[in-house]
Write a structure and sequence with these properties.
EC 3.4.21.-, Rhomboid-like fold, Rhomboid family intramembrane serine protease, mainly alpha, transmembrane helix, peptidase activity, globular, 11 helices, Rhomboid-like_sf
């Protein structure tokens, strides 16, 4: 039986944390080189940023929140759907959650975003399909809430935060990552939806 750090969740958590800390504190130029910039992608530059942006974060709080969510939701989801499906979901969401922004911001020379938020959102919402009544304890709430309610609050926050375009966090990716997570489960395990509908 593999340990938690040898799971896809563990590998992603360690790799993202290490890469993000290097970009934040040792090689700050790396952050700019990895940032997702639709204007440049449309001009044939930085194609890899669609993936690399998911391994760097705007600041330590951004990294901590994403990695906390990955650690909390990733292991049970990975056990539920299996490592290959979990890894596929993560990659699909990492890329797919950027695509709407690729079109929306294609003429914006100033737009740049970083973070694994789209992939994390997919993990969170796939988890919610399987465990809608799971009780979650959040740092800012003194009482536990059910996973489905957390999902609604998360989307509301993402919508509100997405109106602030001055930061390097792609809040639109939260929404599209959630959609990808929900659709992924519907395609690979429709019975999971049948149990909650």
């Amino acid at each position: 039986m593999k340990g938690p750090l040898l799971s896809a969740t563990g590998i992603l958590l360690v790799a993202t944390t290490v890469f993000s800390l290097i970009a934040l504190y040792l090689l700050p130029g790396l952050l700019a080189r990895c940032a997702f910039q639709p204007y440049r992608v449309w001009r044939g530059e930085q194609y890899a940023s669609v993936v690399l942006a998911g391994f760097v974060h705007a600041n330590l709080l951004h990294l901590a929140i994403n990695m906390w969510c990955l650690w909390m939701f990733g292991p049970p989801l990975e056990r539920q759907i299996g490592t290959p499906a979990f890894a596929l979901l993560y990659v699909l969401a990492l890329v797919g959650s950027h695509l709407p922004t690729l079109f929306k911001e294609r003429r914006n020379t100033q737009y740049a975003s970083v973070g694994a938020s789209g992939a994390i959102s997919a993990v969170v919402f796939a988890f919610i399909v399987y465990y809608p009544q799971a009780k979650l304890f959040l740092l800012f709430l003194p009482v536990p809430i059910e996973a489905w309610l957390f999902g609604l609050l998360y989307l509301a926050y993402s919508y509100y935060a997405g109106r602030d375009r001055s930061r390097r966090i792609n809040h639109d990716a939260h929404f599209w990552g959630a959609v990808i997570g929900l659709v992924f489960v519907a395609l690979v395990d429709p019975a999971a939806w049948d149990r909650i509908l």
